[in-house]
Structures are given as C-alpha cells and as structure tokens.
Specification:
The complex is a heterodimer of chains A (242) and B (393). Chain A has 242 residues and is mainly alpha-helical. Chain A is built from nine helices and no strands. The longest helix of chain B has 29 residues. Chain B is globular and about 70 Å long. Classes of the chains: A mainly alpha (242), B mainly alpha (393).
Chain lengths: 242, 393
C-alpha cells in the first residue's frame, strides 16, 4: 500500500496539528493499522496496578517529619506527634507561600512586559498580592521558629506540595503563555492555598495555639480575596473573548 | 581497610544477573538520606555511563574485542540503571543539578588533595573553582525561580558562594587542552583519578544537555546552555590529561580498575545499609570484570596486568566536606587562567580566550544575570524581608 502521507499532504495543514481529524487520510491508515494488531498479552491495567502495588507495599516514605521527639518509653507521645504534624503542615504552607511570591513575581513581569489593557489585574493589584504572599511566608517563618522548629527544614508535606505545583511554575515562567493562561495556573495555586490555610487554622486551634490561629485567620482572609480576585480576572478575560 | 585486587576476584561475569526488579528498586529519600549518598549515586551513574561510552568507542575500533566488550557492557548498562534509578522522583532536574555540582566540588576536592602529581592536582583545583561557581549560579536560580533553598540538598556540607566567575570560564578550545601524564611513569592513582573525574564531568555535560530544554524559564534555559558549554570544556580538559598513547587494552583495564576503586570507596563511606549492599554487589561485579579483562590483557598484549595495576587499592575517595580546602584554593587561585597547558595569572590570559568569551557574552551573560546581587541565606533570600520590587528586576 502506498501511504497518503506524502510530503505534499503533510505540508498542506497549518496551525495545530494534533487530533485525528487533522489529516483524515492518514487517520484512516492509522485506524486500519491499529485494527490489524493484537496485544502481546491479554489483560488490562490490573497488571500494572499489581506491579505498582508491590512498590507501595515496600513502605518507603518520601521522608520523615521535621521533628520526631520520642517520649520516655521510646514512642512518640501524643503532644509530640501533634506538634510534628503541625510543623509538617506549617513547613508546607511556608514553602507554598515562598513559591507563591515567585509566581506573582513572574506574573508581574509578564503583565508589565505585555502591557495589555484587557480586563484583569493592574500592576498595583498584583504587587499587593505578591507582597502579601511574601508576608505570609515571613509569618510562617516566625511561627515555626516560635514553636521551636527550624523554618529551613523541607518537610515531607512541603516536598510533596512542591512536586504537585511544579507545573504551575512552568506555566508562569514560560514566555509563550498568555496572562489568561497564567491566571488559570495561579487559580490552582490559590485554591490550594485557601484550603491549606483553613486546615492550618483547624490544626492550630486543635492544639490550643489560639494566637497563631488568629494570625492565620487574617492570612486566610487575605487569601480569600486573592482567590476571588483571580477568579474574577480570569472569568472577565475569558468572557471578553466570547 | 584496603582491597587486594589481585586476590579478590568478585563475581565471575557469567554469574552476573539482573531482573527488572533488581534494577528498579525503591529510590533513596531526598529528605532523609545523607547528601553524600546522593553524591555517590550521581558519581557512580557517571562512571557507569563512561564505562558504556568507552566500551562502544573501543568496539568501533577493535573488531576482535567486540564480543567481550559487548558482554561486559551489558552488565555495565544494567548496573548503571540500578544505580541511577536510586534517585527519587521528587528530586527535580534542578535539584539533581545541585547534586551534580556537589559531586563536582567534593569529589574533585578529594582527588585534588590526594593526587600525587602536582601538575594534575593543579588541573583539578582549576576545574574545581569553576564548578564551585556553577553551584552558586544554580542555587540563585533555584531560589529565585522556584523559591527553593539549595542547602536543603547540600545539608551544610558545601559552601554556596561565587568561585571563578562562570562568565570568564569560557576559553578558546586550545586553552582547554592540558599536558598529559606519562603512562610509563604515572602512579596508578593518577590514572584512576583522571578517568574518574573525566567520567563525572562528561556525564554532567550530558545531563545538562538533556534537561536544559525541560525548563520553561528562558533564563534557566540560557544558564543550562552556558554551563553545559563549560562542562564540555571540562570534559575536553580532563580527557587531555590522560595519555593518548595508552593502548585500548590498557585503557580498558584502567576503566575497570577505576570502577572497582570507586565502588570500593562508596561502600567504605555509605551510611544507608540498603544502598551499601548495592555498592558491595557492584564492587563484586566490577572485580569480576577486572579479572576478566586482566586475562584478556594477558592474551592480547602478552603482558602482566600488574605492570599497570596497584597491588592494593589506594585510600578510598573521601566522601566528606572539603570546605577548608576549597576556601583555601579559592583564596589562592581564583584569578588563575589557562594558557594552553599552563596556568597563568589573570594578566596573562591569552588574547584568543578573551576574544572568544567577549563574543560569546556579547549579548549578555546568563550566569551573571541569574545571580545579580545574590547572596545565599538560610531559607532563601526572601527571608530577608519584604522589599519594594524593582520593575524588570
């Protein structure tokens, strides 16, 4: 069979080349080829799941909690365990706010460079949020120190949060992404951030740290405004294109 | 302890077997394992990569050796997989980069301190100060692009500050070539050192060339482009110190001895018992390779491998912090430049290298841009407090 994928047919298509409908003739050949093939092994995803389960069962953790003080009987007592969990979550929030500051730095640079006047944040709006993220980072730094922890520790939750948000930074740092695409990525961060502060307040209250809980509530109020702003700017920009 | 490489025969080649589960074991912990465990993993991946690279080059030039090379190379491939796959997925490419530079600093420092040949020691110190600067530049990128603290990876063992500025490390290729050791008089340790550091630098180059395009940030992409170019220079430098008059069999023998020496070093220092077992297994396999190649050496060259190899291995690589040594070297030698094979004062920097770097940096220097005004501090520079943002900064 002579393929229809000639040089001429391949250069006819402009713009986005993904998707099966881009070149219907080639798609027909592709479907024909796939229908001629048979799997080398019967079954489905359960085999890979079983393989993954073997590694899960080995039980190696990402890492240890920032502090793991032991009680007199060599076991973590309840208070120490509570504090370790608290410090783990504080470390996570700290790392997130630190990254958030850099995210807004990147968004500011993009907005200043593009200078587009479409609906959305002003430079002053973004600077305010950026500085608030930075202040939250410093608040967490101070809080961890006051509790006797080390704010420079990367806790397991902080590490996992960094992995989860790696793509957000990639979106913001990419010179090809639009302000709207960046706001979409920031929305993911702000949603996570709001939920993170809520949890931190619950933990602080549960452990009797009311002063910290009050400070964290203030931070949550700020974050709720950030979230609402980002949602509004994003929505306005998307709707303006319809 | 020392290791008698003639007496210890390890595991014979035909008994060296792997499964995919062997090769893909649980990785190490980025947070809990000692930074030097990561240093050893990155180093040994580089050395295994060199084993495969050398083996292919040798096979392309020696038809009669192709079969024995292919058999050993297959095991090296699987050893490399087993070692490299010990790096965890939460270690990002930039974090791994910081690990690569820690290898380049601490392992090169150990080699420079132990090297018996003064000229070779100078070559290592020269390269060391350049890699030391790379660490500072990558730490600035990590801090400013992603909000991360490089010391979480370095664990206080290694300083983060400027060395010989990366922007002045760019040299005319003629100024990257050094004098080589004489294969007939050089001590075995000199040969082991040279192959070790050449391999590590070559792998660093290859790694940066692979991951550079994965970054969205154009400044990061530029920085990787720039430092990968220096790692290419370093590979050029370190391969030039090896006597090109060595026969293929001599080189093969020294490669196997180098792997034995380094796995032995890893095993001596390893603090994670699970990983130590892997080093011991690889050491046994490499001893098997070494003895296999010793026999081949006798057949092909009709010579005794003892002419080349030490009876017992030298002291292992010192996998500890070399802070004082590095600082002393920085203080004394940061202004050295290379003129052909010689090291000269800044004032004698060859015109050809000055012209080369001026052209290369004529549209800006990524390594200077990324670290403008940067001083490392615990918990990133944001710890210093909220500052008014400067537009375009």
């Amino acid at each position: 069979m002579r393929s229809t994928g000639t040089r001429e047919s391949m250069t006819e298509v402009g713009g986005n080349r993904t998707g099966i409908q881009t070149t219907p003739d080639l798609a027909a050949e592709l479907l024909e080829g796939a229908s001629m093939a048979a799997p080398s092994l019967d079954g489905g995803t359960e085999l890979a799941d079983a393989e993954r389960a073997e590694y899960i069962k080995e039980g190696f953790p990402i890492g240890s909690l920032p502090t793991a003080p032991f009680g007199t009987e060599g076991k973590l007592d309840e208070d120490a365990m509570g504090m370790a969990v608290f410090l783990d979550k504080l470390s996570e929030r700290l790392a997130f706010e630190r990254m958030g500051t850099r995210l807004y730095d990147a968004l500011l640079n993009k907005c200043e460079t593009l200078g587009d006047d479409a609906a959305g944040p002003t430079i002053v709006d973004l600077e305010e949020i950026r500085d608030e993220e930075h202040r939250h980072f410093l608040l967490l730094n101070e809080s961890i120190t006051e509790l006797g922890g080390d704010p420079t520790v990367q806790s397991p939750c902080a590490d996992v949060a960094a992995v989860a948000s790696m793509g957000i930074m990639q979106v913001l740092m990419d010179p090809r992404t639009s302000v709207t695409q960046c706001l979409q990525a920031i929305l993911t961060a702000e949603l996570t951030d709001n939920a993170g502060w809520e949890m931190l307040i619950d933990v602080a209250e549960d452990l009797g740290h009311t002063e910290l809980s009050d400070k964290f509530t203030e931070a949550l109020n700020n974050e709720q405004k950030h979230l609402l702003n980002v949602q509004t700017w994003l929505s306005d920009r998307v709707m303006a294109k319809i | 302890m020392s290791l008698d490489i003639f007496k210890e025969k390890g595991v014979s080649l035909e008994k060296q077997k792997f499964t995919w589960r062997d090769m893909v074991q649980a990785p190490t912990s980025k947070l809990d394992d000692d930074a030097f465990t990561r240093v050893r993993i990155i180093l040994m991946n580089g050395l295994e990569s060199e084993a495969v690279r050398f083996s292919h080059a040798c096979a392309r030039m020696n038809r009669d050796l192709q079969e024995p090379l292919a058999h050993i190379r297959r095991v090296e491939q699987h050893q490399q997989t087993m070692v490299n796959w010990l790096l965890p997925a939460d270690l990002s490419p930039l974090e791994t980069t910081i690990g690569f530079e820690q290898v380049a600093i601490e392992v090169t420092a150990s080699v420079a301190e132990r090297e018996p040949d003064e000229y070779m020691a100078q070559v290592y110190r020269f390269g060391l100060l350049e890699d030391f600067d790379h660490m500072y530049r990558f730490a600035a990128l990590y801090d400013r692009m992603g909000g991360g603290d490089a010391n979480d990876l370095l664990q206080n063992y290694t300083d983060i500050m400027p060395g010989r500025p990366t922007s002045v490390e760019h040299r005319d290729p003629s100024d990257d070539l050094r004098a080589h050791y004489d294969k007939n008089v050089a001590e075995p340790l000199t040969k082991l050192h040279a192959v070790t550091i050449m391999a590590a630098e070559n792998q660093t180059h290859d790694y940066y060339m692979t991951i550079g395009p994965m970054f969205a940030d154009p400044v990061a992409r530029q920085l990787y482009a720039e430092i990968a170019s220096i790692e290419e220079q370093h590979t050029t430098q370190y391969e030039s110190i090896i006597d090109a008059n060595e026969t293929w069999m001599e080189k093969w023998l020294m490669h196997e001895a180098m792997e034995v020496y380094n796995y032995f070093s890893c095993s001596e220092y390893e603090t994670n018992p699970r990983i130590k077992k892997i080093w011991d297994r690889c050491l046994d396999y490499e001893l098997g390779h070494l003895h296999y190649v010793m026999e081949l050496f006798k057949q092909v060259e009709n010579r005794d491998p003892a002419e080349l190899l030490p009876a017992t291995l030298p002291e292992p690589i010192d996998f500890t912090s070399h802070r004082e040594f590095v600082r002393e070297t920085l203080e004394a030698e940061v202004d050295l430049r290379a003129s052909g094979p010689d090291f000269v004062d800044l004032s004698e920097d060859p015109e050809r290298s000055i012209a080369y770097r001026e052209q290369l940096n004529s549209e800006g220097s990524p390594s200077e841009t990324v670290a403008a005004g940067y001083t490392w501090m615990p918990g990133t520079e944001l710890t210093a407090g909220v500052k008014t943002r400067v537009k375009g900064a």
